[in-house]
Amino acid sequence: MKSLSPVDQLFLWLEKRQQPMHVAGLQLFSFPEDAGPKYVSELAQSIRDYCCPEPPFNQRLTRRFGQYFWTEDKQFDIDHHFRHEALPKPGRIRELLSLVSAEHSNLLDRERPLWEAHLIEGIRGRQFALYTKVHHSVVDGISAMRMGMRALSKDPEERDLPPVWAYKPEKKQRSLPSNPVDAMSSLARLTAGVSKQVATVPALARELYKVGQKAKTDPNYVSIFQAPDTMFNQCITGSRRFAAQSFALPRLRKLAGTFSCTINDLVLSMCGHALREYLISQNALPDQPLIAMVPLSLRKDDSAGGNQIALILANLGTHVCDPANRLRIVQASVKDAKRRFAQMSPEEILNFTALSMTPTGLNLLTGLAPKWRAFNVIISNVPGPREPLYWNGARLRGMYPVSVVLDRIALNITLTSYQDQLEFGLIACRRTLPSMQRLLDYLENSIRELEIAAGFK
Asked: Can you give the residue ranges of the O-acyltransferase WSD1-like N-terminal domain (predicted)?
Protein backbone atom coordinates (compact mmCIF):
# COMPACT_ATOMS: atom_id res chain seq x y z
CA MET A 1 0.00 0.00 0.00
CA LYS A 2 1.41 3.38 -1.03
CA SER A 3 0.24 6.75 0.22
CA LEU A 4 -0.64 9.52 -2.23
CA SER A 5 1.31 12.76 -2.18
CA PRO A 6 -0.51 15.85 -0.85
CA VAL A 7 -0.81 17.16 -4.42
CA ASP A 8 -2.39 13.92 -5.67
CA GLN A 9 -4.74 13.86 -2.68
CA LEU A 10 -5.77 17.39 -3.57
CA PHE A 11 -7.01 16.30 -7.00
CA LEU A 12 -9.27 13.76 -5.29
CA TRP A 13 -10.58 16.25 -2.74
CA LEU A 14 -11.36 18.76 -5.49
CA GLU A 15 -13.35 16.27 -7.54
CA LYS A 16 -17.12 16.51 -7.48
CA ARG A 17 -19.87 15.68 -9.91
CA GLN A 18 -19.65 19.00 -11.72
CA GLN A 19 -15.84 18.97 -11.62
CA PRO A 20 -14.31 15.67 -12.82
CA MET A 21 -10.55 15.72 -12.39
CA HIS A 22 -9.32 13.50 -15.21
CA VAL A 23 -7.21 14.39 -18.25
CA ALA A 24 -7.44 12.61 -21.60
CA GLY A 25 -6.16 12.40 -25.12
CA LEU A 26 -7.89 11.69 -28.43
CA GLN A 27 -5.73 10.02 -31.08
CA LEU A 28 -6.98 9.70 -34.65
CA PHE A 29 -5.51 6.95 -36.87
CA SER A 30 -5.82 5.91 -40.49
CA PHE A 31 -6.00 2.24 -41.44
CA PRO A 32 -2.88 0.52 -42.79
CA GLU A 33 -3.07 0.07 -46.55
CA ASP A 34 -3.38 -3.70 -46.20
CA ALA A 35 -6.03 -3.58 -43.48
CA GLY A 36 -9.12 -5.70 -43.99
CA PRO A 37 -12.68 -4.92 -42.90
CA LYS A 38 -12.13 -6.55 -39.49
CA TYR A 39 -8.91 -4.70 -38.72
CA VAL A 40 -10.23 -2.73 -35.72
CA SER A 41 -12.08 -5.74 -34.28
CA GLU A 42 -8.93 -7.84 -34.49
CA LEU A 43 -6.92 -5.01 -32.96
CA ALA A 44 -9.41 -4.76 -30.12
CA GLN A 45 -9.13 -8.46 -29.38
CA SER A 46 -5.34 -8.36 -29.33
CA ILE A 47 -5.41 -5.37 -26.96
CA ARG A 48 -7.91 -7.05 -24.65
CA ASP A 49 -5.39 -9.85 -24.14
CA TYR A 50 -3.24 -7.40 -22.15
CA CYS A 51 -5.29 -7.95 -19.02
CA CYS A 52 -2.50 -7.64 -16.43
CA PRO A 53 -1.64 -3.93 -16.35
CA GLU A 54 1.55 -2.42 -15.00
CA PRO A 55 1.66 0.32 -12.34
CA PRO A 56 0.07 2.80 -12.07
CA PHE A 57 -2.70 1.25 -14.18
CA ASN A 58 -3.22 -1.65 -11.76
CA GLN A 59 -3.61 0.58 -8.69
CA ARG A 60 -6.94 1.38 -7.07
CA LEU A 61 -7.77 3.72 -4.23
CA THR A 62 -8.32 2.75 -0.64
CA ARG A 63 -9.05 5.17 2.18
CA ARG A 64 -7.96 4.99 5.80
CA PHE A 65 -8.21 7.64 8.50
CA GLY A 66 -9.32 10.22 5.93
CA GLN A 67 -6.27 9.64 3.71
CA TYR A 68 -6.06 7.95 0.30
CA PHE A 69 -3.64 5.14 -0.54
CA TRP A 70 -2.83 3.16 -3.68
CA THR A 71 -3.22 -0.59 -3.50
CA GLU A 72 -3.05 -3.22 -6.23
CA ASP A 73 -6.40 -4.22 -7.69
CA LYS A 74 -6.59 -7.98 -7.20
CA GLN A 75 -9.83 -8.22 -9.23
CA PHE A 76 -8.83 -6.20 -12.27
CA ASP A 77 -11.42 -6.38 -15.06
CA ILE A 78 -10.08 -5.40 -18.47
CA ASP A 79 -13.61 -5.17 -19.91
CA HIS A 80 -14.41 -2.31 -17.54
CA HIS A 81 -11.36 -0.27 -18.54
CA PHE A 82 -11.04 -1.08 -22.24
CA ARG A 83 -14.10 -0.54 -24.45
CA HIS A 84 -14.54 -1.19 -28.16
CA GLU A 85 -17.20 1.11 -29.61
CA ALA A 86 -18.53 2.29 -32.96
CA LEU A 87 -19.83 5.68 -33.98
CA PRO A 88 -23.39 6.02 -35.21
CA LYS A 89 -23.76 6.81 -38.89
CA PRO A 90 -22.70 8.88 -40.73
CA GLY A 91 -19.49 8.57 -38.68
CA ARG A 92 -18.29 12.14 -39.05
CA ILE A 93 -15.80 13.89 -36.80
CA ARG A 94 -18.84 15.62 -35.32
CA GLU A 95 -20.11 12.30 -33.97
CA LEU A 96 -16.64 11.47 -32.66
CA LEU A 97 -16.39 14.74 -30.73
CA SER A 98 -19.89 14.22 -29.34
CA LEU A 99 -18.86 10.80 -28.03
CA VAL A 100 -15.72 12.23 -26.41
CA SER A 101 -17.76 15.06 -24.89
CA ALA A 102 -20.13 12.57 -23.27
CA GLU A 103 -17.37 10.27 -22.03
CA HIS A 104 -15.34 13.15 -20.62
CA SER A 105 -18.37 14.22 -18.59
CA ASN A 106 -18.43 10.92 -16.69
CA LEU A 107 -16.58 10.41 -13.43
CA LEU A 108 -14.14 7.53 -13.17
CA ASP A 109 -15.09 4.72 -10.78
CA ARG A 110 -13.03 5.08 -7.59
CA GLU A 111 -13.57 1.41 -6.77
CA ARG A 112 -11.33 0.52 -9.73
CA PRO A 113 -8.07 1.81 -11.23
CA LEU A 114 -8.71 5.35 -12.39
CA TRP A 115 -8.46 5.07 -16.18
CA GLU A 116 -10.38 4.06 -19.29
CA ALA A 117 -9.46 3.50 -22.94
CA HIS A 118 -12.05 3.61 -25.76
CA LEU A 119 -11.22 2.17 -29.18
CA ILE A 120 -13.66 3.79 -31.60
CA GLU A 121 -14.38 2.63 -35.15
CA GLY A 122 -16.97 3.61 -37.76
CA ILE A 123 -15.25 6.88 -38.66
CA ARG A 124 -15.44 8.01 -42.27
CA GLY A 125 -12.41 7.66 -44.50
CA ARG A 126 -11.02 4.36 -43.11
CA GLN A 127 -10.14 5.89 -39.78
CA PHE A 128 -10.47 4.92 -36.12
CA ALA A 129 -9.72 6.67 -32.84
CA LEU A 130 -8.44 5.97 -29.36
CA TYR A 131 -9.75 8.08 -26.47
CA THR A 132 -7.88 7.49 -23.20
CA LYS A 133 -8.62 9.22 -19.91
CA VAL A 134 -6.68 9.02 -16.66
CA HIS A 135 -7.33 10.70 -13.33
CA HIS A 136 -5.13 13.69 -12.54
CA SER A 137 -4.12 12.03 -9.26
CA VAL A 138 -2.40 9.32 -11.35
CA VAL A 139 -0.62 11.48 -13.95
CA ASP A 140 -0.43 15.10 -15.00
CA GLY A 141 -1.13 16.20 -18.56
CA ILE A 142 2.46 16.16 -19.76
CA SER A 143 3.14 12.75 -18.22
CA ALA A 144 -0.02 11.40 -19.85
CA MET A 145 1.16 12.58 -23.26
CA ARG A 146 4.56 10.97 -22.74
CA MET A 147 2.90 7.70 -21.79
CA GLY A 148 0.76 7.83 -24.90
CA MET A 149 3.80 8.41 -27.11
CA ARG A 150 5.58 5.39 -25.60
CA ALA A 151 2.87 3.14 -26.98
CA LEU A 152 3.54 4.31 -30.55
CA SER A 153 6.33 3.51 -32.99
CA LYS A 154 8.23 5.31 -35.73
CA ASP A 155 8.19 2.06 -37.75
CA PRO A 156 5.01 1.48 -39.82
CA GLU A 157 5.86 -2.22 -40.08
CA GLU A 158 6.02 -2.84 -36.33
CA ARG A 159 3.14 -4.90 -35.00
CA ASP A 160 2.07 -6.45 -31.68
CA LEU A 161 2.66 -3.20 -29.82
CA PRO A 162 1.21 -3.39 -26.31
CA PRO A 163 -1.24 -0.72 -25.12
CA VAL A 164 -0.07 2.01 -22.78
CA TRP A 165 -1.18 0.19 -19.63
CA ALA A 166 1.08 -2.79 -20.39
CA TYR A 167 4.38 -0.86 -20.44
CA LYS A 168 6.78 -1.00 -17.52
CA PRO A 169 6.56 2.28 -15.60
CA GLU A 170 9.21 4.94 -15.85
CA LYS A 171 10.27 7.11 -12.94
CA LYS A 172 7.47 9.58 -12.29
CA GLN A 173 8.33 13.19 -13.07
CA ARG A 174 5.82 15.91 -12.40
CA SER A 175 6.11 19.15 -14.24
CA LEU A 176 5.74 22.48 -12.53
CA PRO A 177 2.12 23.65 -12.23
CA SER A 178 0.03 23.88 -15.37
CA ASN A 179 -3.17 24.98 -13.63
CA PRO A 180 -4.17 26.85 -10.45
CA VAL A 181 -4.56 23.65 -8.46
CA ASP A 182 -0.96 22.68 -9.20
CA ALA A 183 0.03 26.21 -8.23
CA MET A 184 -1.47 25.66 -4.78
CA SER A 185 0.91 22.76 -4.30
CA SER A 186 3.77 25.08 -5.14
CA LEU A 187 2.79 27.23 -2.18
CA ALA A 188 3.34 24.25 0.09
CA ARG A 189 6.95 24.23 -1.03
CA LEU A 190 7.35 27.66 0.51
CA THR A 191 7.65 25.89 3.85
CA ALA A 192 10.55 23.75 2.66
CA GLY A 193 14.08 25.16 2.84
CA VAL A 194 12.89 28.06 4.99
CA SER A 195 16.10 30.07 4.91
CA LYS A 196 16.31 29.98 1.11
CA GLN A 197 12.64 30.90 0.79
CA VAL A 198 12.84 33.78 3.27
CA ALA A 199 15.70 35.24 1.27
CA THR A 200 13.33 35.74 -1.68
CA VAL A 201 10.86 37.90 0.26
CA PRO A 202 12.48 41.34 -0.37
CA ALA A 203 12.76 40.74 -4.12
CA LEU A 204 9.20 39.44 -4.34
CA ALA A 205 7.84 42.37 -2.36
CA ARG A 206 9.61 44.84 -4.67
CA GLU A 207 8.36 43.02 -7.77
CA LEU A 208 4.76 42.83 -6.59
CA TYR A 209 4.87 46.55 -5.76
CA LYS A 210 6.26 47.41 -9.22
CA VAL A 211 3.57 45.29 -10.89
CA GLY A 212 0.83 47.08 -8.98
CA GLN A 213 2.24 50.54 -9.74
CA LYS A 214 2.74 49.92 -13.45
CA ALA A 215 -0.80 48.53 -13.79
CA LYS A 216 -2.12 51.89 -12.58
CA THR A 217 -0.52 53.76 -15.48
CA ASP A 218 -0.59 51.17 -18.28
CA PRO A 219 -4.05 49.72 -19.07
CA ASN A 220 -2.49 46.84 -21.04
CA TYR A 221 -0.16 45.78 -18.23
CA VAL A 222 -1.26 42.62 -16.41
CA SER A 223 -1.35 42.52 -12.63
CA ILE A 224 -3.00 40.15 -10.19
CA PHE A 225 -6.82 40.31 -9.92
CA GLN A 226 -7.50 42.51 -12.94
CA ALA A 227 -9.25 39.77 -14.95
CA PRO A 228 -12.82 40.94 -15.73
CA ASP A 229 -16.01 39.09 -14.86
CA THR A 230 -17.06 37.01 -17.88
CA MET A 231 -19.36 34.13 -18.73
CA PHE A 232 -16.26 31.89 -18.63
CA ASN A 233 -16.07 32.50 -14.88
CA GLN A 234 -19.41 31.17 -13.69
CA CYS A 235 -20.22 28.04 -11.72
CA ILE A 236 -20.05 24.96 -13.93
CA THR A 237 -22.05 21.77 -14.33
CA GLY A 238 -20.77 18.25 -14.97
CA SER A 239 -21.64 18.32 -18.69
CA ARG A 240 -18.77 18.84 -21.14
CA ARG A 241 -18.35 19.80 -24.76
CA PHE A 242 -15.13 19.00 -26.60
CA ALA A 243 -14.00 20.60 -29.84
CA ALA A 244 -10.78 19.92 -31.76
CA GLN A 245 -9.05 21.08 -34.91
CA SER A 246 -5.65 21.03 -36.60
CA PHE A 247 -3.89 24.05 -38.07
CA ALA A 248 -0.89 23.97 -40.42
CA LEU A 249 2.32 24.98 -38.65
CA PRO A 250 4.03 26.32 -41.82
CA ARG A 251 1.16 28.76 -42.22
CA LEU A 252 1.59 29.97 -38.62
CA ARG A 253 5.40 30.10 -38.87
CA LYS A 254 5.09 32.40 -41.88
CA LEU A 255 2.89 34.77 -39.90
CA ALA A 256 5.16 34.61 -36.86
CA GLY A 257 8.15 35.53 -39.03
CA THR A 258 6.31 38.45 -40.60
CA PHE A 259 5.26 39.89 -37.24
CA SER A 260 8.58 39.00 -35.52
CA CYS A 261 6.83 37.06 -32.79
CA THR A 262 6.85 33.51 -31.45
CA ILE A 263 4.35 30.79 -32.29
CA ASN A 264 3.11 31.04 -28.69
CA ASP A 265 2.48 34.79 -29.12
CA LEU A 266 0.57 34.04 -32.31
CA VAL A 267 -1.50 31.31 -30.63
CA LEU A 268 -2.45 33.62 -27.76
CA SER A 269 -3.48 36.29 -30.25
CA MET A 270 -5.57 33.73 -32.16
CA CYS A 271 -7.28 32.73 -28.91
CA GLY A 272 -7.86 36.37 -28.04
CA HIS A 273 -9.62 36.92 -31.37
CA ALA A 274 -11.70 33.74 -30.98
CA LEU A 275 -12.77 34.59 -27.44
CA ARG A 276 -13.63 38.16 -28.45
CA GLU A 277 -15.82 37.00 -31.34
CA TYR A 278 -17.50 34.35 -29.19
CA LEU A 279 -18.32 36.85 -26.44
CA ILE A 280 -19.65 39.32 -29.01
CA SER A 281 -21.94 36.59 -30.36
CA GLN A 282 -23.24 36.10 -26.82
CA ASN A 283 -23.54 39.87 -26.16
CA ALA A 284 -21.12 39.40 -23.30
CA LEU A 285 -17.82 41.09 -24.23
CA PRO A 286 -16.39 43.07 -21.27
CA ASP A 287 -14.60 46.39 -21.74
CA GLN A 288 -11.48 45.08 -20.03
CA PRO A 289 -9.20 42.56 -21.79
CA LEU A 290 -9.42 38.88 -20.90
CA ILE A 291 -6.41 37.42 -19.08
CA ALA A 292 -5.03 33.94 -19.80
CA MET A 293 -2.98 31.75 -17.48
CA VAL A 294 -0.16 30.31 -19.61
CA PRO A 295 2.61 27.86 -18.64
CA LEU A 296 5.85 29.33 -20.00
CA SER A 297 9.16 27.57 -20.59
CA LEU A 298 12.17 29.48 -19.24
CA ARG A 299 14.77 27.06 -20.61
CA LYS A 300 17.63 28.83 -22.36
CA ASP A 301 19.54 25.75 -23.56
CA ASP A 302 18.93 22.34 -25.12
CA SER A 303 18.97 20.46 -21.83
CA ALA A 304 16.14 18.09 -21.02
CA GLY A 305 16.44 17.55 -17.28
CA GLY A 306 14.80 19.50 -14.50
CA ASN A 307 11.90 21.92 -14.49
CA GLN A 308 12.25 25.40 -15.94
CA ILE A 309 8.63 26.38 -16.24
CA ALA A 310 6.63 29.27 -14.78
CA LEU A 311 3.04 30.42 -15.04
CA ILE A 312 2.39 33.83 -16.54
CA LEU A 313 -0.70 35.98 -16.90
CA ALA A 314 -1.06 37.15 -20.51
CA ASN A 315 -3.22 39.98 -21.83
CA LEU A 316 -5.27 38.54 -24.73
CA GLY A 317 -6.15 41.95 -26.21
CA THR A 318 -9.86 41.17 -26.47
CA HIS A 319 -10.66 44.87 -25.98
CA VAL A 320 -9.18 45.83 -29.37
CA CYS A 321 -10.55 45.02 -32.82
CA ASP A 322 -7.42 45.29 -34.97
CA PRO A 323 -5.62 41.89 -35.19
CA ALA A 324 -2.13 43.39 -35.54
CA ASN A 325 -2.62 45.63 -32.50
CA ARG A 326 -3.93 42.66 -30.53
CA LEU A 327 -0.83 40.65 -31.41
CA ARG A 328 1.39 43.53 -30.27
CA ILE A 329 -0.44 43.70 -26.94
CA VAL A 330 -0.08 39.95 -26.43
CA GLN A 331 3.59 40.03 -27.38
CA ALA A 332 4.33 42.92 -25.02
CA SER A 333 2.51 41.16 -22.19
CA VAL A 334 4.51 37.96 -22.62
CA LYS A 335 7.78 39.89 -22.94
CA ASP A 336 7.05 41.71 -19.67
CA ALA A 337 6.60 38.38 -17.91
CA LYS A 338 9.78 36.93 -19.43
CA ARG A 339 11.73 40.08 -18.49
CA ARG A 340 10.46 39.85 -14.92
CA PHE A 341 11.47 36.21 -14.54
CA ALA A 342 14.85 36.80 -16.17
CA GLN A 343 15.76 38.93 -13.16
CA MET A 344 14.70 36.30 -10.62
CA SER A 345 16.31 33.23 -9.15
CA PRO A 346 14.58 29.83 -9.58
CA GLU A 347 13.28 30.12 -5.97
CA GLU A 348 11.91 33.59 -6.63
CA ILE A 349 10.19 32.43 -9.83
CA LEU A 350 8.56 29.52 -8.02
CA ASN A 351 7.39 31.66 -5.13
CA PHE A 352 6.18 34.53 -7.33
CA THR A 353 4.16 32.04 -9.38
CA ALA A 354 2.71 30.45 -6.25
CA LEU A 355 1.77 33.80 -4.69
CA SER A 356 0.18 34.97 -7.95
CA MET A 357 -1.93 31.85 -8.43
CA THR A 358 -2.69 30.67 -4.92
CA PRO A 359 -5.68 32.99 -4.24
CA THR A 360 -7.38 31.55 -7.33
CA GLY A 361 -6.57 28.03 -6.15
CA LEU A 362 -7.84 28.71 -2.64
CA ASN A 363 -11.05 30.05 -4.12
CA LEU A 364 -11.47 26.74 -5.95
CA LEU A 365 -11.37 24.98 -2.60
CA THR A 366 -13.58 27.38 -0.65
CA GLY A 367 -15.60 29.39 -3.18
CA LEU A 368 -15.62 32.25 -0.68
CA ALA A 369 -14.14 34.98 -2.89
CA PRO A 370 -15.31 34.53 -6.51
CA LYS A 371 -14.12 38.04 -7.43
CA TRP A 372 -10.52 37.09 -6.60
CA ARG A 373 -9.81 36.36 -10.21
CA ALA A 374 -6.29 36.34 -11.62
CA PHE A 375 -7.31 35.02 -15.06
CA ASN A 376 -10.31 34.05 -17.19
CA VAL A 377 -9.08 31.08 -19.19
CA ILE A 378 -6.27 28.51 -19.27
CA ILE A 379 -4.22 28.22 -22.47
CA SER A 380 -1.50 25.58 -22.50
CA ASN A 381 0.87 24.49 -25.28
CA VAL A 382 2.62 21.12 -24.89
CA PRO A 383 5.32 20.27 -27.46
CA GLY A 384 4.69 17.00 -29.31
CA PRO A 385 6.55 14.68 -31.69
CA ARG A 386 7.88 15.96 -35.00
CA GLU A 387 8.05 12.64 -36.86
CA PRO A 388 5.11 10.47 -38.02
CA LEU A 389 4.09 7.78 -35.53
CA TYR A 390 2.26 4.47 -35.94
CA TRP A 391 0.28 2.07 -33.79
CA ASN A 392 0.33 -1.50 -35.08
CA GLY A 393 0.68 -0.24 -38.64
CA ALA A 394 -1.97 2.48 -38.36
CA ARG A 395 -0.63 5.99 -38.92
CA LEU A 396 -1.36 8.63 -36.29
CA ARG A 397 -3.13 11.48 -38.11
CA GLY A 398 -3.95 13.74 -35.19
CA MET A 399 -3.65 13.92 -31.42
CA TYR A 400 -5.84 16.23 -29.38
CA PRO A 401 -5.50 16.93 -25.64
CA VAL A 402 -8.65 16.89 -23.50
CA SER A 403 -8.00 18.72 -20.25
CA VAL A 404 -9.81 19.69 -17.04
CA VAL A 405 -12.51 22.32 -16.58
CA LEU A 406 -12.63 23.94 -13.15
CA ASP A 407 -15.37 25.78 -11.30
CA ARG A 408 -15.44 29.41 -12.47
CA ILE A 409 -12.87 28.56 -15.17
CA ALA A 410 -15.29 27.03 -17.65
CA LEU A 411 -12.94 26.85 -20.65
CA ASN A 412 -9.57 25.18 -21.09
CA ILE A 413 -7.63 25.45 -24.37
CA THR A 414 -4.77 22.97 -24.67
CA LEU A 415 -2.75 22.40 -27.80
CA THR A 416 0.13 20.28 -28.91
CA SER A 417 2.27 19.98 -32.00
CA TYR A 418 2.52 16.92 -34.22
CA GLN A 419 4.66 16.91 -37.37
CA ASP A 420 3.61 20.09 -39.22
CA GLN A 421 0.34 20.51 -37.37
CA LEU A 422 -0.79 22.39 -34.30
CA GLU A 423 -3.56 20.37 -32.64
CA PHE A 424 -6.10 22.35 -30.60
CA GLY A 425 -8.26 20.66 -27.97
CA LEU A 426 -10.95 22.83 -26.38
CA ILE A 427 -12.96 21.56 -23.41
CA ALA A 428 -15.73 23.54 -21.72
CA CYS A 429 -18.81 23.28 -19.56
CA ARG A 430 -21.57 22.59 -22.07
CA ARG A 431 -24.25 24.57 -20.23
CA THR A 432 -22.09 27.55 -19.25
CA LEU A 433 -20.72 28.07 -22.78
CA PRO A 434 -23.40 27.29 -25.39
CA SER A 435 -22.23 26.60 -28.96
CA MET A 436 -18.61 26.59 -27.81
CA GLN A 437 -17.57 24.74 -30.97
CA ARG A 438 -17.88 28.05 -32.85
CA LEU A 439 -14.53 28.94 -31.34
CA LEU A 440 -12.93 26.70 -33.97
CA ASP A 441 -14.33 28.87 -36.77
CA TYR A 442 -13.20 31.99 -34.93
CA LEU A 443 -9.67 30.56 -34.61
CA GLU A 444 -9.55 30.02 -38.38
CA ASN A 445 -10.90 33.54 -38.95
CA SER A 446 -8.17 34.93 -36.70
CA ILE A 447 -5.49 33.45 -38.96
CA ARG A 448 -7.15 34.91 -42.05
CA GLU A 449 -7.33 38.36 -40.48
CA LEU A 450 -3.65 38.24 -39.54
CA GLU A 451 -2.80 37.12 -43.08
CA ILE A 452 -4.71 40.12 -44.44
CA ALA A 453 -2.94 42.42 -41.98
CA ALA A 454 0.40 40.94 -43.10
CA GLY A 455 -0.44 41.60 -46.76
CA PHE A 456 -0.65 37.93 -47.75
CA LYS A 457 -4.15 38.32 -49.19
From this structure: 4-267
Closest CA to 207 of 362, 369, 334, 345: 345
Above 80 in pLDDT, residue 366? Answer: no
Query: Of 398, 385, 411, 400, nearest to 271 (Cα)?
Result: 411
Q: How many residues does the chain have?
A: 457
CA distance 436 to 98: 13
**Beta carbons within 8 Å of 188's beta carbon, 6+ residues apart:** 6, 7
Q: Enumerate residues 6+ apart whose C-beta is below 8 A from 1.
A: 62, 69, 70, 71
Q: At what angle do helices 346-366 and 6-14 cross, to 10 degrees?
A: 30
Helices marked H in 49-193 — which ranges?
78-81, 93-105, 141-150, 180-188
User: For the segment 328-343, what is each residue's pLDDT rounded down to a tens digit?
Assistant: 999 999 998 888 888 8
Q: Catalytic: 136?
A: yes
Alpha carbons 295 and 76: distance in angstroms, whole number: 36
Cβ atoms of 122 and 86 within 8 Å: the answer is yes
Three-state SS letters, 354-393: HHHHHHHHHHHHHCCCCCCCCCCEEEEEECCCCCCCEECC
Tell me the pLDDT tens digit for each residue of 394-416: 999 999 999 999 999 999 999 99
Cα–Cα distance for residue pair 427/440, rounded to 1 Å: 12
Q: Backbone phi, then psi, for 378, in 5-degree steps?
A: -105, 130
> What average pLDDT does this structure show over 199-204?
58
Candidate list 81, 104, 118, 136, residue with the active-site label: 136
pLDDT band at 127 (very low <50, low <70, confident <90, very high): very high
Rg (CA), the chain: 22
pLDDT score for 17:
95
Please give the sequence-ordered ranges of beta strands (E in DSSP) within 299-351, or none if there are none. Answer: 309-315
Which backbone phi and psi does 327 adopt, to 5 degrees?
-60, -40
Structural contact between residues 326 and 315, judged by C-beta atoms closer than 8 angstroms? no
pLDDT for residue 97 is more than 90: yes
pLDDT above 50 for 302: no
Distance CA 8, CA 11 (A): 5
Q: Can you tell me the mean pLDDT for 303-316?
A: 66
Pairing, β 411-418 against β 421-429: antiparallel
Question: What's the pTM value of the predicted model, to 2 decimals?
Answer: 0.88
